[in-house]
Each structure stands twice: as structure tokens, then as C-alpha cells.
Amino acid sequence: MISRRIFASGLLASTASAVWGGAPEQSLRPQPRPTGFLIRTIPEAADIIRDARLGGRVGFAVADAATGEMLEVVNPLYPLPPASVAKAVSCAYALDRLGPNYRFRTRLVSDGVLADGRLDGDLWLVGSGDPLFDTDALAAMADNLVNMGVREVTGQFRVATGALPEIWQIDSEQLPHVGYNPAISALNLNFNRVHFEWERVGEDYTISMDARSANLRPAVQVARMQIAERTTPVYTYSDAENHDAWTVARGALGNAGSRWLPVRRPAAYMAEVFQTFMAGHNVNLPSPSYEANAPDTALVLVEHVSEQLDDILRGMMRWSTNLTAEVVGLMATQAGGIRAASLPESGAAMADWMHEHLGARNAAFVDHSGLGVGSRIRPQDMTRALISARPDGLLRDLMKDIPMRDGDGNVVEGHPMEVVAKTGTLNFVSALAGFARTPSGRDLAFSIFSADLDRRDAIPDDQRERPQGTRSYNGAAKRMQQALIERWGVVHA
Q: Where are the beta strands (DSSP E) in 131-192?
């Protein structure tokens, strides 16, 4: 690792001549000043990569963020999985197509007449894909409907799902029970996750499935759990006729616990919880029916308006929420005139947009979140895209601070290198892309990708959630990333 003292000296600088079109496959060694003794003590990039012992492939590209001059590269033209770094592209895509002030709107509408507490007509729940919509917001909509005088609905309860395609899951290669791989719909609730909780009572267990928030716990039937007499697998999933059917191994439960599980029927999930809230107000709704769109003549009774898009994206970049990335990506594709029916189709549209607007010619996306390992970006193209998106622009502001750490993993307070970036992690895949400001004030744009795909492909099925070696791989990758950034902060200051 490079010491903080080297940064503080501020004595060293370097030059490089490569530009975007002719980036070489191996690192350009910066030419030190004749008196630059300290610069010659900094490890070479090849040594840093070798010492990380990651296996597979590592590639990076770092450039001057103001001029686009390429400063140093290793394997810049080798396409690698971006993991959640893809969310940075999805951010830029959504901001361009939808605008930072875009808001999602979830509505209750009707083409009937309200008189004396009676709504004579159909009640529609209409979604627009709001990825942050939760149980508290849905409860507030039910309260507002009752407060405006609705005591009875004589028509049907209808759910409009046409704003987005209904997609069963983000990535089919994930284990069925991981909560970060939910379905996608025009109506999303609690990131399309259901809360499963269990507690031992004597020789048996009490279990519950609910759409909980901080204050509310409405039970649901659209997702159901049964305890099975086995030890492994811990969970199984099957698609029942009208609900998600889960089983859990009794031998894995212990005394008590809880877990968020993905929901595969998000529109039905949201409709059921809304019915529960309305029943709490003594307004009984019939079983829902599902259609694409509400009538154009329907009047808005209640509306929930989301935060504006830039705030939604800031949270997505901080917490790396996959559902948010997929929703905003699909919406951006639609705003460009393509009604994508699948994530790969929408990902291809984003790759075309990236080529046209950010200059990246060879990107390929199978989704918008980076969860699918089939996506590929070349380090040079990702760095070029960051610069095209403007280093002083909104995308940089949406990225989170990346703290620099010492050899024991502790954050170094007051470190002279300022880094904002998007991280990305899959099993035996690690990525980091963003901007770094050197102690002298020079802004760098960089991308660092690493992947051992052979090792990933060899993961046994029973270790796919926590495969052996992935934690040490990710730790070594992060240390390598920091060492490279610290190197650049000195030799390219």
C-alpha cells in the first residue's frame, strides 16, 4: 500500500500520451521527472495486480476527467461483467430519457359516481412502476379514499398493470429465495419482497408471511410457506395456481428468525394488501381483476406521488437496489419509443443509447442492475462513458463516497485522495468505477473490473448463496482497487 506521506509531499507528477482511440493492452508507465525519486518507489500496476492473486482477468482504464487523455491502462479492451457498476449507466440513461424531475404516480381512479358514501362504478388501482412504493404509502391511499367519503364500492376492483411488462425475476441464475432478485411490475410493493418470520413454540413453529413496514404488518396469502422435514435445501419455490408456494427446511430454522423473500406476483401482492386496508375501514372489495389500462374517462380519486427521479437514483446508487435500476431502465427504454418485453431487450436498447450518447461501442447489457453476469463492458468504454457524462455533472453527484482504508481495514480520516464511485460485486466478480480527485486537485475518471468466471462457473449448487472463497476474493479485489487508486493519485497528480 502507498503511504499517506507520499500524497502529502505533492512533489511528483507524470505525463502520458495515449488517447482513447489507441489505448494499448498493457499499462503505460508514466515517465517520472528526473528528480522524482519518490515516484519510482510506487508499485507498478502490474505488481499490484499480481500481488492481489485474483485469478481470471483484471482490466482498468484511468484518464484525465477534464481532457479525456488516457493515462494508464491494463486490458482496456477486454470486456468484463460490470456487476452493479451497470447502475451508473442506468442512472445516466434514465436521467437523459426521463429527466431528474420525473416522478412516479400511483393512483386510485374510477369512472363511477360517488354519492352518499357509495361509489357507483369500478375502482381501479393504477401503477406506474414506482420502485419505492411501500406498505405505509398504500395504507395512506386507503385512508385518503375513505376520508373523501367512500364507504361502499358497487362495481369491480380492477388493477391496471400496463405501465410496465410483468417480469418474473431479474436473473434466472440466482437462487430462488434471494430477495434482491424479485419480479418487476407496474405495481411494486416493498421492493417486491414479503417478510417471512418464524419462532419455535414447544416442538413446533409459528410462521407468518406479511407485507410489513415499520408500523404495519398486514398478513398475505399471495405468498405462503410450509415447513418441510428436511435439512437441505433451505428453501424451495413453486408457482402455484394463484400464489407463491414456499417450503423451508425445519432443520435450518433454529429457534427464531426472519427473512425477506422475493415476490413473483407483485400486482396481486399489492392488490391483496390494499383490500386488507380497505376491509379495516369496513369497505369490502371484490376479488381483483387485472387489465392493462384504466379508462381514459376515469377520474383520479387519490394519488401518491414519488420522490423526484434524481433522489430515487441517489438512493439506488447508495444501496444498490436492483428493482429500482430495472424499473428506471425499462421506463427509459419506453421513453425512447421501444416497448421492451424483457430485460435483455431493454438492456440492448440501453447499450445502443450508451454507444450513441456516451461513445461506448461494445457494451452489452442483459439487464439494468448488473445482476446478470452476462453483461459486458470494456474498461476503456466505461471510463469514456463517465467522462462523456461530465465529471462535474449529476451522475458524479449521485455516486457515493468511497473511503480509503489502512491495512487493517479502518477508514483513514482526512485521506488526501477523494473518491466517489459505484461498486459492483457478484461471486468472483468485483468492479469499481467513478472519479478520483488527487491531492493536487486533478480529476481522474477510472474503471477497474476483475472477474474469475471459471471459478464462478465451478461453484457447487449447494454453495451458490455463500460460495467458499468469494469473501477473500472480494476483499483482495477491494485492496487492489485502493492500491491502484493510490498509485494514480501520486503518479498522475
A: 152-153, 157-160
- Give phi and psi for 89, each to the nearest 5: -65, -40
Task: Dump pLDDT digits (tens) for 338-381.
Answer: 999 999 999 999 999 999 999 888 899 999 999 999 999 999 99
Backbone angles phi, psi at 248, to 5 degrees: -130, 145
Spatial distance between the Cα atoms of 320 and 369, rounded to a whole number of angstroms: 8
Q: What is the pLDDT of residues 3-22, one digit of tens each?
A: 333 333 332 233 333 333 34
According to DSSP, the residues that pair with 437 across neighbouring strands are 418, 443
- For 437, the grid coordinates are 480527485
**Sign, Cα dihedral of 275, 294, 310, 411:** positive
In sequence order, what are the residues at sequence separation of 6 or more whose Cβ sits closer than 8 angstroms to the Cβ of residue 323? 131, 170, 182, 184, 188, 191, 192, 369
> Helices marked H in 53-85 — which ranges?
none
**Structural domains counted in the chain:** 2
| CATH number of domain containing 118 | 3.50.80.20
What is the tens place of the pLDDT at every residue in 208-238?
999 999 899 999 999 999 999 999 899 999 9
Q: What is the pLDDT of residues 455-472, one digit of tens each?
A: 999 999 878 888 999 999
250 in the same domain as 167: yes
